[in-house]
Specification:
The protein has 19 helices and four strands.
Amino acid sequence: MKRLIFAVLAIMVMAAPMANAQKVNKEAVLAKLEKADADVANPKKGTKAATWMARGKAYYDAAVAPTKDIFNGMELSVAQLAIGKPEATNEGVVLNGQKYTEMVYPWMKVYVAGGKIVTWIVTQSVKEGDLAMEALNSYNKAFELDPKQAPKIAEALKFVENYYSQGGNAAMDAGLFSRAAELYNCGYTVQESPAYAGQKNSDYLYFAGYLWTVDGANNKASFVKGAEALNKALANGYTDKEGNIYYYLYHAYYGQTDSAVREANMQRAKQLLMEGLAKFPNNDRIIEGLINVYTADSNSDPKELLEMVNNALQRDPKNKDMWFGRGRIYYSLKNYDESITSFKRVIALDPNDALATFYVGFFYIAKGDALNEEINQRDYKSNAEWKADQEKVTNIYRESVPYLEKAHTLNPKDFSTIETLKILTFRLRDDEGMMPKYEKYNKLYEEMKAQQNK
């Protein structure tokens, strides 16, 4: 262990004299690229896999030259031994909603928080163009010439993939969403190489599509790219855990307002959201998207959406998740009776579903609130008439109590249920036996709140 420490110290001491400025020998790097290009253009050398592999290495080295000595989470004190002192330092620079210390170097700007590098922005490259993609193309050519070199090429591809992955992370943290999307998409392109031997996944496509869709708010063309990447991810069998890919795809299509195939895009958005709803009926974003599609299009009737859901339930009446989704749709449309009916079906299929049980109680409260608001808008001619309507509201609130208490029994640690019961029992405190319940739930609420604040 002591020898390791001494070795590290020796490296640090050796690095110290060079720590005056970031070093990128542009002339030397360009000379290597020129030689690599000349070699592959040579009639004899250009037929050899080794020549193309050497070109791949030269272009990869050129691509990483500005950032090869830093990484996310790197201690600033260590980084400055490698890249030297900055040309300028700017405090309190806001980037992607966060404040950083900006350190300006000849080839990049580094953003620091808590004494560590968080992200960076490359400000110049040794040569125009995507140098890492040139490296990938060279490695692919090497494989084409000599497939036996696959193990060596696969090892080199790991570095190219990592370049795009790290670059994408840095760009996303910097709020450069379009740039991050491009880099993530290129990371997936590396995986499509015939010599790639790593674990293939579609995370790159998902994040690229998501970020392009986010960028679409400022650049409409990004919506098209987002839809392409997300569709490709779906075609590969990819879905994120929450099913948000369907919601982002909906936005990617919905955002293409100037598209000549607007109507086709809207139909595709509907199709995707319905597909997503079937797989992820608890996803409120998907339901929100469906409501938006059906209410924004004058040619669409929300009843069509409900008809599709109801037809699906006729085919599979024991589909608990579809009943859950149906209830959320009706709630979005403020049809509380149908929402309650839907979630009661969920409970009938699964009596131990705490969330569905909570929702029944919650929707009774929503129904009571809606009636109470309506009553407040009425012009009453007698106090007795007003009291009669108020009693109707109270009766609706009363119906929620057993469901919320059952939900609490099923999930005693759920804060939302306890908080709702506290408020509800206080409102019904004049009912017989309700005040002791309020005291019980208020005590639980205060205890849980105190625990959360520790």
